[in-house]
Design goal:
Blueprint: E1 6-10, E2 13-20, E3 23-27, H1 28-36, H2 41-51, H3 53-56, E4 66-70, E5 73-77, E6 79-81, H4 82-91, H5 98-116, H6 118-131, H7 136-162
Antiparallel strand pairs: 1-2, 2-3, 3-6, 4-5
Helix pairs in contact: 1-2, 5-6
């Protein structure tokens, strides 16, 4: 996949995106256009910024306009990060945005539950492996391997700060 320029399709509407600072950034105008059917998404976005204080500075997540390849060639377009895209979606009063809002509410609720009961997070982490057909034994080994790697990394980080005379053997 070309990380410099790609399209995401939302109900037959193209959402342009670009790879910037090691993450995807999405055209804010395309998101607004797909969710509102506005004839002037640029104006809609400007009105949103005027009404909502957090959008005046781009929600703190707007870089300078990014270059995206369009039908007319390269253009500099205002983009939002994934987090910014979710914030934008939350702010749009539209029935098309409602499924995203419901999903965000569900995921947020699940995260609160996981904070209260960390075992739920571990269970959620295992589900994709089960769906892909991995055995419970393989999953348990994978989880242990991740824990051991994290522990080793922590020990190595601590050794750097303690100096060679205070190193602890990990084996």
């Amino acid at each position: 996949m070309d990380k410099d320029n790609a399209l995401v399709v939302f109900e037959n509407k193209d959402i342009r995106r670009v790879w910037f600072n090691d993450e995807w950034w999405f055209s804010a105008m395309d998101i607004v256009g797909a969710l509102t059917n506005s004839t002037n998404p640029t104006r809609y976005l400007k009105d949103m910024r005027r009404r909502d204080e957090s959008f005046k500075d781009g929600g703190g997540k707007l870089p300078p306009p990014l270059e995206i390849i369009t039908k007319g060639g390269k253009q500099r377009i205002n983009c939002v990060s994934t987090k910014g895209a979710f914030r934008l979606i939350q702010s749009i009063p539209s029935t098309k945005a409602e499924p995203f809002k419901q999903w965000l509410a569900k995921v947020g609720y699940e995260r609160v539950q996981e904070i209260e009961n960390p075992e739920l997070a571990q269970k959620r982490m295992k589900e994709p492996y089960l769906q892909k057909g991995y055995s419970n034994e393989w999953i348990e080994k994978r989880v242990r391997g991740i824990a051991i790697r994290d522990e080793l990394t922590d020990v190595l980080k601590n050794q750097r700060f303690l100096g060679p005379q205070k190193c602890v053997s990990i084996f």
